[in-house]
Amino acid sequence: MRYLKNVWYQAGWEAELDGDSLLSRTLLGENIVMFRGKEGAPQAILDRCPHRFAPLSAGRLNDGVVTCGYHGLSFDGEGRCVGNPHGKPGAIRTRSFPIVARNMILWVWMGDPDQADAARIPDCSFIDETPEAARITGTLPTGAHYQLIVDNIMDLSHADYLHPTTLGGMFTGAKTHVSGGNDRLLIEYNAVDCNPAPAFHSIVPPPQKADVRVEVQWFAAGVMILAAGAQPTGTTRDPGRDSFTLHSITPETDGSAHYFYCSTRPFLTDNVEVSASIKAALEKAFVEEDKPMLELQQRQIGDADFWSLNPLLLPIDSAAVQVRRALDKLIDAEARDER
Amino acid sequence: MRYLKNVWYQAGWEAELDGDSLLSRTLLGENIVMFRGKEGAPQAILDRCPHRFAPLSAGRLNDGVVTCGYHGLSFDGEGRCVGNPHGKPGAIRTRSFPIVARNMILWVWMGDPDQADAARIPDCSFIDETPEAARITGTLPTGAHYQLIVDNIMDLSHADYLHPTTLGGMFTGAKTHVSGGNDRLLIEYNAVDCNPAPAFHSIVPPPQKADVRVEVQWFAAGVMILAAGAQPTGTTRDPGRDSFTLHSITPETDGSAHYFYCSTRPFLTDNVEVSASIKAALEKAFVEEDKPMLELQQRQIGDADFWSLNPLLLPIDSAAVQVRRALDKLIDAEARDER
Amino acid sequence: MRYLKNVWYQAGWEAELDGDSLLSRTLLGENIVMFRGKEGAPQAILDRCPHRFAPLSAGRLNDGVVTCGYHGLSFDGEGRCVGNPHGKPGAIRTRSFPIVARNMILWVWMGDPDQADAARIPDCSFIDETPEAARITGTLPTGAHYQLIVDNIMDLSHADYLHPTTLGGMFTGAKTHVSGGNDRLLIEYNAVDCNPAPAFHSIVPPPQKADVRVEVQWFAAGVMILAAGAQPTGTTRDPGRDSFTLHSITPETDGSAHYFYCSTRPFLTDNVEVSASIKAALEKAFVEEDKPMLELQQRQIGDADFWSLNPLLLPIDSAAVQVRRALDKLIDAEARDER
Q1: Closest CA to A247 of A298, A331, A328, A323
Q2: With an 8 Å Cβ cutoff, are C160 and A72 in contact?
Q3: A311, B58: Cβ pair inside 8 Å?
Q4: Residues A13/A106, Cβ–Cβ less than 8 Å
Q5: Which residues of B touch C69 (CB under 8 A)?
Q6: Mean of all residue pLDDT scores within chain A
Q7: pLDDT-derived band of residue B275, with 50, 70 and 90 as boundaries?
Q8: What are the backbone dihedrals phi and psi of residue C55, each rounded to the nearest 5 degrees, phi first?
Q9: Which of A62, B329, C55, C190 is a good FRET partner for A11, with 20 to 30 A between their CA atoms?
């Protein structure tokens, strides 16, 4: 499987790392283990002892050092062996990965460490800027290639058919505009004087009609930020009322992905019950509607190359197809650079 | 896997299609979805939307039209797109398959549609001609290559060893005769003055001896009709007393098959309790005896070509081997025609 | 997968074969069935009828003869067909394997039968020589390549990290000596004036220190006999007080193995409760500590060649690496002989 390597991927949530935990996760087919170093900073190293290949996550964390549970070799967050009960640590090393905690997210760089530039991390400051009670965070394991999940978000028209009772009903026929290129892309939907999706009924109750604006900003390889706002038809839009949702998709294996999401809102920001009920609705839509569909798609596609199956191209696919082509280009460029 | 394509396969039972249902099944490695068209006739199309490969069976059926649950494209039973909310249906198509409901059976043609000739459907009129109360129908999913199941029926001597307490005891040593060729074959068993199988004890109670006649007619690729009759030794045979059983085997994947059966009898034809008890006995014999043996065979054979394992040939294999050779020839001929 | 063929492997325990049982097991990727012949001697033949490949173990054993449950062919322990209800047995045969019951163990030879020499069976007479009440026997199915399990026993330092509360604590830093070659190897550990492992506390209670001697004798491909003795520091060693444990590992498939063990002790030899408690402790250590670690290693290694992953070599690996190199040489030599 070809993955884009020199890019930041979400590896988890900062809150998953408490002082003692070893967080093991497979990203882009590689097993990594994350933990907090001596000073508390997140660390990520290969979850495989170089001696006999035991996963280090089956060992113990002490004071920022992981000790293998099989023969006692110890490693710090740089991947350096700092304890060898059977000799000198010498030059023993395991691979380490650049990792940054920002906006509550753990970002990992799976490519060339020298190119890891934290300035390239997608800006998710809307998360920190939202009071905790108005933030909804989740992790959804999905048995589908990550690009199918990216397609799903880059083409919101699916909501009209897959989520008609919650999120859909206003995308088909909305005016769309796609811009950007290289490793970023923006798709804007403007649904004017439409029947807003049931999710907006608290803002624009039926039978009132609404002007709805949704935009999705994509950052290679799998990070998307969705902003959405609605107001009664013809009234003035207040961008300060927009809700934001991070959809952050990280490949796990060729046929599975980690789907991290975080949804925030600018109203009722101290109401945890509203948050709980939105979270339940979002996860219900995902678990009962998106996830089965994505996993059925994956089963139909199997190991085949997506393009080799000659997918029918519709106008709604514009952004998703541009993302796929941008990724292909970036991956090809990376392959060339490696040669 | 090489399958015979230009032949009718049983895809299910007509009764499985009510007005609203989408019946999804994998045949010869292809996923198809069956449903009733606007006029009520059965339809079969590829269970895969040409847009993003979602299974159409995860969508909805309305008035003979299937709508994809992912982005709302609609298809009729000819595979034509008859609704596209994102543009014109234009030339959008998915593959359709000839399908015929006859004798309560759904017959599907997986090969070249131009060659689909309903006159070639095996005659199973014994099913309709039997009162409903005297018909027993079932579907048995089996984790074995369909040819192993065909072998099993084309060599009934196995009943003497695998089903000694129900169906066996009289086949080994019976006089057999095999005739036919190309895509049909008949094996006849005549067991003269034998101890009939326990299944015949209601007709010829022990210690009486019986003359038993069983014949199996095979139609390529996997359809077999078994006729059986017994009478006390030396008395006159009345063919009108024969019982008939359809054994219809359709490949699902390389290692699994759909086993459809329908058993009828010419006596006690209004007794549903007798039917229930025969059904229970048949399925018990299959589920506890045939199915495990077939699946163990499959596990031993794995991906190997059957002939490459040099099976020992015995006289009892005559019909089964002729069927395998006939199938090989038909499949080879089909491959030649495609070139 | 390359296996050493011309060598004795443990196929089970003699006690597993009572008069009626058909014992089916996969060894080196081949399915064999074991049973007692007419005179009571163990027999081993391929667990696959040459006719239609049904496993013979799904049939019946009568008077030393196995009858296939599918079509009634019968085979004796030499693999000769001794009953064919459909014709003459003639030259029908299935493969048979040399098998010897010795020291309560069933030893099978999977290679060239002409080279099977019972004199090459590893001497496990310590088993018979121990009273039954002081013998502990078990079989542990393990989802790991057999060489990983051999590595585990040939490097006991792992006990200090994986079994700190039972078997470990004294191996790291003990004086070791490795000797032998070809198809045998001995590693000796001498831990002088050490804190003995908790398992020795009944012999040398804390805070007393001990001199502990452990040696492991390896016999190709996967048989190891471990002898262990401890006495208070500076006192005289009595080899008659040593405990012995057989660790006998037989490949099942490329990723799984049969782990047979038998532990004996020279003290409290009539106390079955002590035996039960030692057995519980040993299996707990294996099932909760070794088995997960071995299976995690296997998962990390997958199908890769062990050496291709460049394992870090430490002094503790000396015996395990010599065993791996000896096996590679023996397997290469066998491949040359076959050409």
Answers
A1: A323
A2: yes
A3: no
A4: yes
A5: 161-162, 293
A6: 95
A7: very high
A8: -65, 130
A9: A62
Are A71 and C314 in contact (CB < 8 Å)? yes
Query: For residue B307, what is the DSSP state?
Result: G
* Amino acid occupying residue C77: G
Decide if B94 contacts B48 (C-beta within 8 A).
Answer: yes
Maximum C-alpha span of chain B = 77
Which amino acid type is present at position C100?
V
Calculate the alpha carbon distances from C78 to B95, C8, C66, C114 in Å. 56, 18, 11, 14
Structure tokens at A1: 């499987």
End-to-end CA distance of chain B: 17
DSSP output for C288-300: IIIHHHHHHHHHH
Tell me the β-bridge partners of A26: A31
pLDDT score, position C239: 87
Contact B314 C51 (CB under 8 A): yes
Tell me the mean pLDDT in the region A269-286.
93
The confidence score (pLDDT) of residue C337 equals 86
- Hey, is B124 helix, strand or coil? coil
pTM, full prediction = 0.94
Local structure of A214: helix, strand or coil: strand
Can you give the pLDDT at residue C1? 63
CA angle B157, B158, B162 (to 5 degrees): 140
Nearest CB to B300; choose among C53, C69, C87: C53
Closest CA to C141 of C256, C293, C31: C256
In this complex, do C69 and B314 lie within 8 Å of one another by their Cβ atoms? no
Q: Which tokens go with C68?
A: 């296939």
Strands across the sheet with B135-142, in order?
B135-142, B256-264, B243-253, B223-232, B210-219, B184-194, B175-181
C-beta neighbour count of C12 within 10 angstroms:
23
pLDDT tens sequence across A281-316: 999 999 999 999 999 999 999 999 999 999 999 999
- The CA R_g of chain C, rounded to the nearest whole Å, is 22
Which chain C residues contact residue A84 at CB under 8 A?
314
User: How far, in Å, CA of C64 to CA of C66, rounded?
Assistant: 7
Cβ–Cβ < 8 Å for C311, A51: yes
Q: Do B53 and A315 touch (CB under 8 A)?
A: no
Q: How far is B306 from chain A (nearest CA, A)?
A: 27
Reported as a single tens digit per residue, the pLDDT across C156-205 is 999 999 999 999 999 999 999 999 989 999 999 999 999 999 999 989 99
CB contact under 8 A, C53 and B315: no
Q: What pLDDT digit, counting tens, does each position of C247-271 carry?
A: 999 999 999 999 999 999 998 999 9
Chain A adjacent subunits, 3+ CB pairs under 8 A: B, C
Q: Is A264 helix (H, G, I), strand (E, B) or coil?
A: strand
E strands, C7-47, are 8-13, 23-27, 30-36, 42-46
pLDDT band at B239 (very low <50, low <70, confident <90, very high): confident
**Residues for chain A: how many in total?**
339
DSSP, collapsed to helix, strand or coil, labels residue A134 as helix
Query: Does A280 have pLDDT greater than 90?
Result: yes
Which residues of chain A have a Cβ shorter than 8 Å from any chain C Cβ? 31, 48, 50-55, 58, 67-72, 84-87, 92
**Whether pLDDT at A142 is above 90:** yes
User: A-chain residues within 8 Å CB-CB of B85?
Assistant: 160, 172-173
Average pLDDT over residues A14-33: 95
Cα separation, C145 vs C141, whole angstroms: 11
User: Which of C41, C23, C38, C29 minimizes the C-alpha distance to C1?
Assistant: C29
**Average pLDDT value over all residues in chain B:** 95
B150-159, B266-275, C21-30: which has the minimum mean pLDDT? B266-275
What is the distance between the alpha carbons of residues A80 and A90, in angstroms, rounded to a whole number?
Answer: 9
Interface B-C: count of C-beta contacts within 8 A: 57
Neighbours of C93 (CB within 10 A): 16
